[in-house]
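Bug report (template v2)

What were you trying to do?
Predict the complex of my protein with 6-O-phosphono-beta-D-tagatofuranose.

What happened?
Run completed; filing so the output is reviewed.

Input:
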Amino acid sequence: MTRVAFVTGNGGLPKLQITTEWSAAEIYLHGAHVTQFQKHGEPPLLFLSAQSRFQPDAPIRGGIPIIFPWFGKPVGRSGQHGFARNRSWALQEITTPEPGTIYARFRLPPAPELGEGRIVVDFLVSVGQTLTAELKVTNHSTDTFDFENCLHTYFAVGDISTLQVVGLQGVDYLDSLEGHQRKTEVNDAIRFTGEVDRTFINTRHRVEIHDPAWRRRIRVEKTGGVSTVVWNPWIAKAKAMTDFGNEEYQRMVCVESGNVATNQITLAPDEAATLTMKLSSEALA
Ligand code: TA6
């Protein structure tokens, strides 16, 4: 049984409610923002802050923010993490090419920053036993187009203090807490005893989130992306964010898939780049 409903969500913002025989999901037009994905009988896969704003001029805190066309706040750019997550996207189509799986495709409206439609940005979400998200950028202009992209995914976890992020051993990263200094991950797993904010570069590795508290393993797989960002704000930064509960850092981790920093993309005219992320989960053995 699959069902799609178009309803009024938080803050009066329109959203899609999707139900399949395996899962439920919600996607706001604002930012084409996936705010919920939950397999029936499991805890939510995605974290959504109870303090999140739902207003046209602010990003939703949690779920899968689409970071485009820049990550962070590069010199000369206005605003953190680009503008795609703060724009209302157009729902293009809903299809069911595979029995029981719902596909929803969105398009970022033309904008001066995107050559008034010469740079086309599409986002395709598939909801079923897994969740996949695909961000496709096509350059129909006569110039090259430089950009960063990142699916800044917030995962719901049982307890950050016992959580492990596995799969990045030996990979170089830029440490945002130490002036983006380049380091190499030497541990078999990333554990959390304070704020962590690391941009792993040149990596196609699958990443796993091992969550003993909820006895769950989450798999994050990507194609078309060679950067993985791992972030937990911890205590001080959690308190500093007005759209994030002071204690919520204990129940979330960001593992983000994209192409950022030295992995930024340059698209030639008539070229396209597609970033695909696949999320799946299973009980820990
Ligand atoms: O996840 C990496 C990061 O760049 C962190 O440094 C932190 O700023 C986070 O993104 C959240 O950014 P936001 O603009 O959504 O508050």
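What did the reviewer find?
The chain has one domain: 3-283. The domain at 3-283 is CATH 2.70.98.10 (Beta-galactosidase; Chain A, domain 5).
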